[in-house]
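LAB NOTEBOOK - FOLDING QUEUE
OPERATOR: T.R.
BATCH SIZE: 2
PURPOSE: Compare the predicted structure-token outputs for two unrelated chains run back to back under identical settings.
PRIORITY: normal
REVIEWER: second-year student, initials M.K.

ITEM 1
FIELD SEQUENCE / FIELD STRUCTURE:
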Amino acid sequence: MAEDTTPNAGAQAAEGEKPQLKFSLQRIYVKDISFESPNSPSVFQKAFKPKVNLDLNTSSQQVEENLYEVVVKVTAQVTDNESGVTSFLAEIEQAGLFRISGIEGAQLDQTLGAFCPNLLFPYARECVDNLVNRGGFPPLMLAPVNFEAMYAQRKQREAQAQQSGQTQ
């Protein structure tokens, strides 16, 4: 029988390597959902000429060590383009639980503020479309969103606000 004379590979790895990056999506779920059609059935008795007002926000919080909840909130208010009467209001909070380790600081902030919302948004789009359709309205097909650009704009605004606060 041959003896194993190689040094302990695990001990060498622990001394010189960085922590290993781990990222996994644990669960996707709807946290909150709401649909209102305050002026029905009268909104169905005339031609549908929609004006869409869309609000999109993201948030995140740490649930436990290496576990984060990320929420994409979509609010769509559709009014009649001519009269301004509200046709419907749809609100969805699409959430996900992400297990993340080996990422810290600005990289973690960007992952939670841009990468994770990019994964969740297709589910939010589908949920909004389904909800509006069940409300008796034509599908509301939301365009894809560039969360990387939104994250960069938010960071730029924060930097400008911090800079203007320091100059005063």
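ITEM 2
FIELD SEQUENCE / FIELD STRUCTURE:
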Amino acid sequence: MTSGLTGKLLLATPALKDPNFHRAVVLVLNHDEDGALGVVVNRPLSVDVAAVLPGWQPFTTAPGKLYQGGPVALDSALGLVAVPGDRPEPLGVRRVFGSVGLGSVGLVDLDAPPEVVAAELAGLRIFAGYAGWSAAQLEGEIAEGAWFVLPAESRDPFTDTPDKLWADVLRRQGGDLALVASFPEDPSLN
């Protein structure tokens, strides 16, 4: 269950006490024997993309804000893009998951000219920082019950309601996981 998590969503369970990941939805961008890397896709900041990467601002998916991708390297930026289903991988984009015909999500080279790359894209979000795990660390956290591992949909990282994404992903699973979506923010107030 824990091998090959690239392209999966990690949803923080109510048991995860780390405030950096409270109700976080993490898209795993890379997972192998050396560890894992992902971005939290449901944490918009109040900062416009133009404040750090002005050339990319016109091409970002609404609301055009920078997102906090995780607690690691907050001074770095990652660009996540949606590639429409009928297009091959555009210049400057590395596919993370999905395929031609179905649509895909990829990483964009933020040093590439935005005008050249953006014409081929259906969505763009810029993340400050990322979430990272050393070898076997993520697997251990999953075994301890800190994360739900769930399938991602290509629209998840570009949702216009990031504050509802954690509950929305759980509800679409059905069964017991759908019930977790109604878990109170602070169980002690229940």
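REVIEWER COMMENT (ITEM 2): The mean pLDDT is 90.
FOLLOW-UP: none requested
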